[in-house]
Amino acid sequence: MTPARPPQSREDFEARLRAIGAERYHDRHPFHARLHGGDCTPDEVRAWVINRYYYQSRIPMKDAAFMSRVDDPALRRAWRKRMEDHDGSEAGEGGIARWLKLARAVGLDPDYVATSDGVLAGTRFAVDGYVRFVREMSLLEAVASSLTELFAPKIHADRIEGLLKHYAFADDAALSYFRKRLTEAPDDVAFGLAWVLDHADTAERQDAAAAALTFKTDVLWTQLDALWGAYVEGRIPPGAWRPGEGLLDRAAA
User: Fold this and answer.
1) Could you tell me which of 108, 82, 106 has the C-alpha nearest to residue 95?
2) Nearest-5° angle of CA 19, CA 24, CA 29?
3) Pick the CATH number of 10-235 from 3.40.50.720, 1.50.10.20, 1.20.910.10, 3.90.190.10
4) In angstroms, how far is the first alpha carbon of the chain from the final one?
5) Which among 91, 117, 148, 205 has the fewest CB atoms less than 10 Å away?
């Protein structure tokens, strides 16, 4: 009988997870270089806001699906903060509401954006696949898939700097989503990483957790590939948002 493969040490496994982000996180996608460098057209920015909204709006749905499977009250208590961060405790609060402020700032009607009409099929398939993954896979894999948050603070900081430098719409209200995530995310990251390191206690579980994080980086990357093909290269598929749709009157004028 082949002896069981020993797990990596806690330190080595954490380094393995961080290496996945260094290689695969979507901050390396050319669309973000284009966006942060001021090279996006107004319509490319609007397309990004519309499609990214779909992802933002599904995060609390993903977290609700996860919590519905959790027996441990302590884990549920720790996790429900994520839903409150995005949904808010009252109407008009939370990350989703702040994203709609960004939509308004770039000239989009927030009510139109909130319908998710015009979202690219590639975005929809990737995001819905992520929600399904969290609903169906093991709790360890579900938590591990959230660890892209380890790499988010840098992209948020770069985004704030780049948007303020290059785009007239960028101000404190428009960028409030990103600024708030700089303070919200660290606690989530610390909890999720510790939970994964504690529970990935065999080589097989470590492999599953690493694969889940890789899957999540693919979800994020795929959304930007769809956006690039449609709005940078101009291959807008049937049913997707087209420039001129869903604008505020002041943007259409």
Assistant:
1) 82
2) 140
3) 1.20.910.10
4) 74
5) 91
